[in-house]
Amino acid sequence: MAVLPYQSSLLIPSLADLASFCEALALFLKPGDVLALDGPLGAGKTTLSQNLLRVLGVQEPVNSPTFVLMNEYTSTCCPVVHVDLYRLGPERADSLSHELTTIADEGRSLLLVEWACYGDFLQELVTIQIAIQPVWDEAEPEAPDSRGHEQRRVALAANRLLPEALRRFEVSC
Ligand SMILES: Nc1ncnc2c1ncn2[C@@H]1O[C@H](COP(=O)(O)OP(=O)(O)O)[C@@H](O)[C@H]1O
Ligand SMILES: [Mg+2]
User: Fold this and answer.
1) Which parts of 87-157 fold into alpha helices (H)?
2) C-alpha 13 to ligand 1 mean position (Å)
3) For the whole prediction, is pTM greater than 0.90?
4) Domains, in order of start, for the chain
5) What is the pLDDT of residues 7-34, one digit of tens each?
């Protein structure tokens, strides 16, 4: 991956906070951005995409593109293409290389790619990377409270300065 110079460690304490994170993220994004969403199954890549698309004015249901591979939406910002490379895996993700590279090069759409790590061809196109990791309450592993279940650590990297609205989620590593 081309090194994205503006990096930050963030904490999203709950699902409610994910909504406000996505409001800040939506203001930061622009047409032509390629947003890589990585993290284990169930980390929250699709949930973040759903929140983001809602903020961007998409009213239709936003489903996981795991099986259809790719969905397109009209948003208040620009066309949004939501992709999931999970089912293709690292061996076959290249089959979308031409299509996704063309979309990125045209610069008119926002590309959201779950499991972007599977697409070698994407690595030089990515402008923002979000790696999500669930946080388990280590103090009480047997009985985490519901907020513990909703906490997510996010490694955010971008090709441009992160705004204060995103940096307010910052924590020291
Ligand atoms: N802070 C949070 N961010 C994202 N998802 C969360 C959060 N807290 C709880 N969840 C839940 O975790 C699950 C994440 O699933 P999903 O978004 O499909 O993951 P992925 O796309 O990474 O496989 C959802 O059930 C969602 O409601
Ligand atoms: Mg998903």
Assistant:
1) 89-92, 97-106, 146-150
2) 12
3) yes
4) 6-138+149-167 (3.40.50.300)
5) 999 999 999 999 999 999 999 999 999 9
Ligand nearest the Cα of residue 38 is 1
Write b or e for each residue in 39-63: b if 16 or more Cβ atoms lie within 10 A of its Cβ, otherwise e.
beeebbbbbbbbbbbbbbebeeebe
User: Atom of ligand 1 at shortest distance to CA of 43?
Assistant: 22
User: What whole-number distance in Å separates Cα of residue 55 and Cα of residue 75?
Assistant: 9
Q: What one-letter code names the amino acid at 124?
A: E
Per the CB < 8 A criterion, the answer to whether 171 and 11 are in contact is yes
pLDDT tens-digit series, residues 100-126: 999 999 999 999 999 999 999 999 999
Distance 107 CA to ligand 2 centre (A): 24
10 phi, psi to nearest 5 deg:
-120, 160
Nearest Cα to 45, choosing from 66, 60, 28? 66
Give the tokens for residue 136.
Answer: 């388990």
Residue 24 one-letter amino acid: A
Work out the pLDDT band at 89, boundaries 50, 70, 90.
very high
